[in-house]
Design brief:
Blueprint: E1 7-27, E2 30-46, E3 51-59, H1 62-65, H2 73-92, H3 100-107, H4 111-121, H5 130-152, E4 194-200, H6 223-230, E5 234-238, H7 244-265, E6 271-275, H8 283-296, H9 298-303, E7 304-308, H10 324-327, E8 332-334, H11 341-349, E9 354-358, H12 363-375, E10 379-383, H13 389-401, E11 408-409, H14 412-415, H15 420-426, H16 428-431, E12 437-438
Parallel strand pairs: 4-5, 4-11, 5-6, 6-7, 7-8, 8-9, 9-10
Antiparallel strand pairs: 1-2, 2-3, 4-12
Length: about 450
Amino acid sequence: MSKSTDIRILGVTCSFESVPFRAPLKFGGRIVDKTDLINVEIEVESQSGKQATGLGSMPIGNVWAWPSATVEPDQAEDLMKRFAEGVANLFDSYPEYAHPIETVYQISAEYQHLGKTISRRHDCDEPIPELARLVAASPFDAALHDAFGKAHRINSYNGLSSEFMNADLSEYLDDSFAGEFLDQYTTRDPKPRLPLYHLVGALDPLTAADITKRIDDGLPETLGEWIKADGLTHLKIKLSGDNLDWDVDRVLSINRVAEETQAARGCSEWFYSTDFNEKCENVEYVLEFLERVKSGSAAAFDRIQYIEQPTNRDLKANPDNKMHRAAEVKPVVIDESLVDYDSLLLSREMGYSGVALKACKGQTESLLLAAAAQKHEMFLCVQDLTCPGFSFLHSASLAARIPSVAAIEGNGRQYCPGPNKKWARQYPSMFKITDGTVGTAALKRNGLGF
């Protein structure tokens, strides 16, 4: 079956943009001080002759997507670039008219083989892992959805119903979704505003006493300065996962700074999320962490909204890392392990009660997983990959269209604000933060919304 609204790809361009960090970001025992953006343009034509060009952009994020004991970060970054160029060829050579969900679903079946081929061609013994493949392919996915909406002069999120899609969700998930389409799991208009989750990295100074040398670029530098300047109410805390004393002290120290600063500005309610980046050995570590935080400050404990994936991303190789007991205390969301529907189902079996969506895993995959998470009544949040500029707008548009998502992470403004400048002029409500929220009502234009 096909529809007159189906599109085919006329041309693909892919380029890379180097982006320095203004301050280093430490997570999971690793430090990042720069990144490259993968920038993509895709030109399409519908069966009825409508043409448009869509855009996509995403940081390579190799340190997060491909942590390895044998592959150096620079090599991983280079291979992910080569993979992106291979994906460009896959998209450029795809001949069919189809809906973007259908096109990406079919093209993505080639990613595993492409990843193995590129690793072998560049004398790398380790195949490009699935998460790294998804990240490198994500800007192509975004550009195709963007182009589809622009070709039909609609917002892309309003092209997800039976009017536009050729198959229901049972084609991509399972029979429990028979007769259902993605419009049932997304909204027709973006949420007007969303609270912004501000990242507190492991190296980030909490007070002036923590600074050895100020950056002096006009942006806040301590946690207190950020809270005051942006009116923050949501803080994402990076933890070590292998140093319990440090983790507990870090949360309690952040809470003390937050309490002092929020009291000064008359704010009585704010929230935390905690992220161990898979470094915890087991659920007992998480449980003891929560108990010790609660003993140190009941208020700090109450402010923890959810816990991001605390243990190893390889769920099948670590079947004993079950999260049921922790999930009874706080929502525990799957993140690095979440690469497809099967991994979501496995995470539920292992006790995870929530899902972290990321635009860097692909617009198509994110929409399908958002539908599955809602069907299974899981806690939902949207996080970014230190996304600046276009990539942050894309991430925010995703969060603004998923009904149960209550906040959006956005830390590009902290670490790599350079690409934000050209977009901030068009969307000041998204980049000029004063009340702790981003103005997602602005993300309602054709395509992905901006």
